[in-house]
Specification:
With about 500 residues, the chain is mostly helical. About 90% of the residues lie in helices and about 0% in strands. The chain is built from 16 helices and no strands. The radius of gyration is 63 Å and the shape is rod-shaped. The two termini are about 100 Å apart. The relative contact order is 0.04.
């Protein structure tokens, strides 16, 4: 972001623009986080309903979560929700709907290259298995294993092994069923996956049961019982006790069978497991009939029928509740859409207001900046003007000083010339004095002319030298008074 602040002129604008983008991005991010958290909450609630076999409530919850996942465009969450909707639809017995959900989840997982694509293949196989298309189910289980060779997810591999075993058991291929159940058990033990350990051991018990090896079946049931008791999985434990009852029924050990069936019934009643309670009553009715205790058999038969009606009513009520919830959800969805539109309008209004305020601040900042620049320029211009004035004053002073110096130098030169002129004039005066002296001497010549003329010649020669002094005097005089002779000539011509 450093490029935003390279130019000081744009600092205010870029800062506010950056702040605006940050706030908007943060608002969107917070909304996405809130929605994702809501989806996770709904997912947890759906899991609780599903484990309690409240399938209609579970489906309603996941249907509410799906559009939220689509809203934030989280495709992995969409696939997860669709996967659970498929599982719940299969639990409800709606195979067509189950296939639709599972194939949608599969398509998304293929698109985003999600490792849980294996889970989708396994769940499609389970739906085919429940629909009676066991061979088709095996195709999808083996597809899951093929893909998992690259991913190497041991939990999903163990899960696939277990369901392959279940399909082979339905096809009465007990050898393959046993092989894959043992594979599932070994891998589940390796990764300590208790749920698959229980399922695999229970599967091995059911295989042994169908092969009429009831003691072996009970050995596996006992292991399941111990694990289920430790994990407090009451649904598995209730069915496990019923499996014990069925195995003892086959060996005509009715007292033991009745004891386990009664335990299963009590557990189902304690934890409100209506379907398991009905199954236990059916088993007890059959066991008492086989023991010729027809009154007890009839009583449990009546209880089973009442429970059947109760289950039917519960399912109907769940369906009605689902429709009611769906209707309310649609109304709520419409209300949410209206609120969302209003929210968007309010947000847009807020954005416009924010933009207007920021624009105003930017304009004010720009105006203030220009005002400060103008002030700065004016101060600089004033400073330059002062400097120029000072420079001009200094120039004038310098010129005056130079002129004064030149005048002083000129005056000094004139004084010097005047001194030279005075000296020359004095010299001429002396010459005149000398000539006067010579003239006087010439007037006094006597006979001794020869002897006297010699000094005269010397003096004349000396005077001739003084003519040069006159030439020098004339030169200096002309320099001091250059127009003197011309003026003199004009004045006296």
């Amino acid at each position: 972001m450093s490029f935003l602040f390279n130019n000081k002129k744009n600092t205010a604008f870029h800062f506010f623009l950056f702040t605006l983008f940050f706030l908007v991005a943060n608002i969107n991010f917070s909304n996405a986080q809130d929605i994702e958290q809501e989806i996770k909450t709904l997912d947890s609630l759906g899991q609780i309903y599903w484990k309690k076999a409240a399938y209609y409530k579970a489906m309603s919850v996941y249907k509410k979560a799906l559009p939220l996942a689509e809203q934030i465009k989280n495709q992995k969450l969409q696939a997860r929700i669709l996967n659970y909707l498929g599982v719940i639809a299969e639990n409800k017995g709606d195979m067509n709907q189950s296939f639709q959900y599972h194939f949608k989840a599969l398509k998304i997982r293929e698109k985003v290259n999600d490792n849980l694509i294996i889970q989708s293949y396994v769940n499609i196989g389970i739906t085919y298995n429940t629909s009676g298309e066991t061979k088709k189910a095996l195709e999808y289980y083996f597809k899951a294993l093929e893909i998992n060779r690259l991913i190497k997810d041991k939990r999903l591999t163990a899960h696939a092994f277990y369901h392959i075993s279940t399909s082979y058991k339905l096809l009465r291929d007990y050898e393959q069923a046993t092989i894959y159940a043992n594979k599932a058990l070994a891998m589940a033990k390796e990764i300590k996956e208790k749920v698959i350990i229980i399922d695999a051991q229970n599967g091995l018990g059911l295989i042994a049961y169908e092969q009429k090896d009831y003691q072996k079946a009970r050995d596996y049931y006992q292991k399941v019982y111990e694990l289920a008791t430790n994990t407090e999985d009451w649904l598995i434990l209730t069915n496990n006790l019923l499996h014990f009852a069925q195995s003892y029924q086959q060996t005509k050990e009715y007292a033991q069978a009745t004891e386990y069936a009664q335990k299963s019934l009590l557990l189902a009643q304690k934890y409100s497991l209506k379907i398991e309670e009905k199954n236990a009553c059916d088993m007890l009715s059959t066991l008492y009939a086989q023991q010729y205790q027809y009154e007890s058999a009839y009583q449990y038969h009546l209880k089973a029928n009442i429970l059947k009606d109760t289950i039917f009513n519960i399912q109907k009520n769940q369906q009605i509740n689902e429709l009611t919830i769906q209707y309310e959800s649609e109304k709520k969805k419409q209300r949410i859409e209206i609120l969302e539109k209003e929210k968007i309008i309010i947000q847009n209004t807020n954005y416009i207001l924010i933009f207007g305020v920021i624009t105003l601040i930017i304009l004010l900042s720009f105006g203030f900046y220009r005002y400060k620049i103008r002030q700065k320029i004016q101060k600089q211009q004033q400073k330059i003007a002062r400097i120029e004035n000072i420079a001009l004053e200094q120039k004038i002073i310098l010129q005056e000083t130079q002129k004064k110096l030149e005048q002083e130098r000129f005056e000094e030169e004139i004084a010097h010339k005047e001194r030279e002129l005075t000296s020359t004039a004095l010299h001429i005066f002396q010459k005149n004095e000398m000539l006067n002296s010579l003239q006087e001497k010439l007037t006094h010549l006597d006979i001794n002319l020869k002897q006297q003329i010699k000094p005269l010649f010397e003096e004349i020669r000396h005077n001739l030298d003084l003519d040069k002094d006159w030439a020098s005097f004339q030169l200096h005089f002309v320099k001091v008074h250059p127009d003197f002779f011309e003026k003199l000539e004009r004045d006296f011509s």
